[in-house]
Amino acid sequence: MSDWHSWAAIAVFAGAYVLIISEWVHRVAAALGGAALMLAIGATDDIAAFHSDKTGIDWNVIFLLLGMMMIVGVLKRTGLFEYLAIWSVKKAKARPFRVMAMLIVITAVASALLDNVTTVLLVAPVTLLVCDRLKLPAAPFLIAEVFASNVGGTATLVGDPPNIIIASRAGLTFNDFLVHLAPLCAVLIVVLVLLCRVMFAKYFVYDEKRAAELMELREREAIRDPRLLAQGLGVLALVVAGFVLHPVLHYEPSVVALLGAGLLVAISKVETGEVLGEVEWPTLAFFAGLFVMVGALIETGVIGELAGALADAIGGAELGGSMLLLGGSAVLSGIVDNIPYVATMAPVTSELVTDMGGDPDHVMWWALALGADLGGNATAIGASANVVILGIAERNRTPITFWQFTKYGLVVTAATIAVSALYLWLRYFALA
Fold it and tell me: What is the pLDDT of residues 275-324, one digit of tens each?
């Protein structure tokens, strides 16, 4: 890493990161400014930044978000989210902690079936309405949900993008993830609920009068456009089916989402401009800038050097190696987005597994998946779902700062990684 481009890339990334966490400038400006500097100093170029599937903007993520944001924008007009908000509040008897626990479980289960970004796009509007009805601050509930989305998404092959990369490299199936990670994720959700009970205790203020008023509401009256609701839910069901049938259809999630958005706009009477007005454009721009910056670190060999150093430290020790990979992945995935990190580490892990003479479902793969997926909870930019939630919160005038998210994220990450380390030791070593 003697090339001056490598050190310059590190300096630019570090500077942009400082601006993001300090909030001296808006995070979108910091990310796009950092990306521009990476291009200006030659740490990356237009081919690598815009056309490479390894070091460029992940257009699948961008267009997946765009398509789902459009679908959610149409569904907002039907009253569906108001219906779900009233229903969930009534089921939880308007008790704030019960509401949060319910939303955590719903988000986790949905993230295992969909991807975590799609889930938070669907659940966040409900959460904002619930908090508005109960006169509660939305930030703690949104933060808890993004934690749940990352934990729940860890359980399956389709739940979190890094899992798809790992499955492709290791030859793992949907059922492999269910067998090896789903039991742990169920335990981690319980841990998360207990942590949230402690971390957000001061926000669980029960208003008996408001609760009584909410219990008298009729959720069915919230539906404003039954026809559009039927169209939206029908398209959403087709999109979900497209996600699940990816191994058969071979359509990328981004293509499925865009097809669904296009179909819904075509069959409904909603104006295209109104639908596009619901898109979180600043969030998409932030992702683009972040992808270019991280891609420059890959292009200049910085991330490769870090991955190689980790591989050298692991050597052939399975127990120590799996623990180091778990912890190292958690730390690095909190600093850079976990998608490019896993894309870089997957080949390194494959070589380690081969050297250890391991099977395709070797413990090292699960250590990488758990570290990357759960480590994404550590900071506000550690995972795609985190960035989406920050964008939604800002758009709805309930901004979540980098440190507000991160102070809770570090606690959740430390606890879930500790439980995961115990799980890996018990299942693959002590009881193997």
Answer: 888 888 887 888 888 889 888 988 888 877 876 777 777 766 788 889 98
| CA 416/CA 286 separation, integer angstroms | 28
Three-point CA angle 111, 108, 367, nearest 5°: 80
Q: Could you give the CA distance from residue 384 to residue 149 in angstroms, rounded to a whole number?
A: 11
Count of helix runs (H) and strand runs (E) in the chain: 22, 0
- Using CA atoms, how far apart are residues 334 and 229, in angstroms rounded to an integer? 38
Selection from 70, 80, 67 nearest residue 275 by Cα: 70
Element (H, E) at 334: helix 318-335
Q: What CA–CA distance (Å, rounded) separates 423 from 107?
A: 23
Burial of 426 (0-12, 13-18, 19+ CB in 10 A): exposed
pLDDT of 371-402, one tens digit each?
A: 999 998 999 888 888 988 998 898 888 899 98
In a 10 Å sphere around its CB, with 0-12 CB exposed, 13-18 middle and 19+ buried, how is residue 205 labelled?
exposed
pLDDT beneath 70, residues of the chain: 1-2, 307, 315-316, 340, 358, 360, 432
Are the CB atoms for 153 and 188 separated by under 8 Å? no
pLDDT of residue 142: 95
Are residues 279 and 64 in contact, defined by beta-carbon separation less than 8 angstroms?
Answer: no
Q: Please tell me the distance from the alpha carbon of residue 143 to that of residue 55, in angstroms, as a whole number.
A: 29
CA–CA distance, 120 with 143 (Å, rounded to integer): 10
67 CB contacts (<8 Å, ≥6 apart)?
Answer: 239, 254, 256, 257, 258, 259, 260, 261
Residue 87 identity (one-letter amino acid): W
Binning the chain into helix, strand and coil, the percentages to the nearest 5 are: 80, 0, 20
What's the token pair of residue 241?
């089916």
Q: Which sign does the torsion angle of CA 61, 65, 68, 70 carry?
A: negative
What's the rounded Cα separation, in Å, for the pair 69 and 117?
10
